[in-house]
Amino acid sequence: MSSNRSSVNDVNRPQPNVLILGIGNLLWADEGFGVRAVETLQQWYRYPEHVRAMDGGTQGVYLVQEVRESDLLIVFDAIDYGLPPGTLKLIEGEAVPKYLGVKKVSLHQTGFQEVLALAEMLGDYPEKILLIGVQPVEIEDFGGSLRSEVKAQIEPAIEQAIAFLSAHGISVSRRTRPLLADRLSSAISDMTRYEHERPGPEQVCRLGDERVLLSGEYQIEHRPAALDGSAMSVGLDQHLNKYRTDTRG
């Protein structure tokens, strides 16, 4: 894979643009691993100005410009490697898009495959890519937090990222005290607070908004990719079952 930009060793631009990206969805348990990893990095570590740590969430193709501007790209994510739950696995280079698509944990991974494909097509593909993924334990738990096996891999994942950066001459140091989020955003960005303030199952439906799920008045219109533009309406239960199957890969 090539890039039309100068090499990271170019004397005219000695410092590479580095993007550390956490992708995933905090609202679905272990699917939030990537975001939690990058949040921990932001709170507890110092890194040079040419290194950016970013919560990519589920933005998909909206991240393409961020990727195009990076020379080195590190991605934290929950990946279905088919390994024991909680297993940490690193993938580098050309193999990264393949692992993001073979067994999708979530729809955002398809979107990030497209991001990489678009960046390559536009001639601005990162020179080095490292995917740091963890095998999820549970994702079908709306509003849930990381399971203990996955949470335990946050620091090892960050250590792998730091080692990768160090191999490219980039130094990262740990803070003596974490950066604190503001009062409102900490309700989500502070994982401990997020866990402790989560309503119990007797108060909140774990699969979504029970006003919709338990109502027989709602239907979701599904338009298949048909040449004649035809559409059909399917019941909510059928739609949810299809969604769960798709996201399981």
From TrEMBL:
One GO MF term attached to the UniProt entry: metal ion binding
Gene3D superfamilies: HybD-like
Origin: domain of life: Bacteria
Name this polypeptide is given: HyaD/HybD family hydrogenase maturation endopeptidase
Entry's family note: Belongs to the peptidase A31 family.
Gene name of the encoded protein: hybD
Stored PANTHER family: HYDROGENASE 1 MATURATION PROTEASE (PTHR30302), HYDROGENASE 2 MATURATION PROTEASE (PTHR30302:SF1)
Pfam families: HycI (PF01750)
Keywords: Aspartyl protease, Hydrolase, Metal-binding, Nickel, Protease
Binding site for Ni(2+): 31, 77, 108
Gene Ontology annotations of biological process type: protein processing
Organism lineage string: Bacteria, Pseudomonadati, Pseudomonadota, Gammaproteobacteria, Chromatiales
Transmembrane segments: none
